[in-house]
């Protein structure tokens, strides 16, 4: 764990740059993480990000399939919003932990 | 008389029947367990069956042997749970309960992926998460002459999340022993960021893939199987060709959970992570793969959960607050091939680390390091499963909560 300044705010991040505390997140932080990945955020992106944050707060697991069923985007659209690894990048931008397996 | 009803006589349900029959007064509580299937499978054996390490007989027994005599064992199909009326409808019988334990597990749902159940299913595409799939794969491997072997995970969560990786490692050994490793390309395809997603594991274990010549494809979310071209295709039209596809289809909770309106979008039941009480109904408890708790879907987890849940059922009956005790503890052997294995011990918040297990400094098992002893441990576990685990006998020196004794936090993240 280390401290990184993103959009002028000092936040705790994991080795791969995921926020350790989702409460330190704000929209400016999201925009800066997104631009590092090469994504410019639109209102549609934020709808997905807010959905992921709500699910995480409710301690529900995140799946690509779940996002596809959310009524916000289908999976193809999710890929267009967050190319090359939608859950990996969307969760990083949403300030929530990286989806992991047991090892 | 009051009624405690258990749905599902797999690993978790059978353990609960054994635990509770010893603890509940027989003149006060009837215990009933329902499962339509007669056979109890040793599911970890499905990993070994394809490589002819285990025989069919070693992985299946008659389930009834493991249900205590004073428990009413009903072999019928469960139609629906009516939580508001405290009743469960079976195919031709209605059961009422005071306390319900749902242990209906998880199963593969290959029909969720387009093209998976097509012309190549069970010809060049196999699963090993069912007895039938694992057996069919064994027969295929016995005569397979080589080509592109793709080991593939559809999406998380899956039962025993390391099994696909173990399969790839064991396949490497299997083909080496057969003298045909040079004829087989092995690829490991995952929707996650890599084979190892936890920093301690990726630091300690990444050498394994290189050592075994296993090619990695990460961030691959399958959209469909192209049966004509023999390729799996993701949502960005990335294509991975295969001659033999060993896939882990989507895992879902039982259809009865969906029908009863108790599950999430994968039919897993929202459950308190620490007490194992269902979030929606206070007299419904959930254990094993049927829950949505973010622990591994594995027998060791069900075993640790069973100890906490037994205590909580007793507390609930007497009107006391439940123990917020379960910590997501999992303890798993991971086969790495060449008759070696790793052992990992972790929980909701602590990643697998180095150390010795179960005794500090003595071991004899080593955590997160390959050893022959760990492999023997995994093979010995089959005996422990049939003779101790299912009967609810505690495994000596292994506690329900993760212990920090003997753990060494020496793995530094890579810069």
Automatic annotation (TrEMBL), chain A:
GO terms for molecular function: sulfur carrier activity. PANTHER family: SULFURTRANSFERASE TUSE (PTHR37010:SF1). It comes from Lutibacter flavus. NCBIfam families: dsrC_tusE_dsvC. Belongs to the DsrC/TusE family. It is found in: Cytoplasm. One of its GO terms (biological process) is tRNA wobble position uridine thiolation. InterPro entries: DsrC-like_C, DsrC-like_dom_sf, DsrC-like_N, DsrC/TusE. The active site is at residue 102. GO terms for cellular component: cytoplasm. Its main location: cytoplasm. This is tRNA 2-thiouridine synthesizing protein E. Keywords: Cytoplasm. The lineage of its organism: Bacteria, Pseudomonadati, Bacteroidota, Flavobacteriia, Flavobacteriales.
TrEMBL record, chain B:
Signal peptide: none annotated. GO terms for molecular function: oxidoreductase activity. Residues 3-296 form the FAD/NAD(P)-binding domain. InterPro entries: FAD/NAD-bd_sf (IPR036188), FAD/NAD-binding_dom (IPR023753), SQRD (IPR052541). This is Sulfide:quinone oxidoreductase. It comes from Lutibacter flavus.
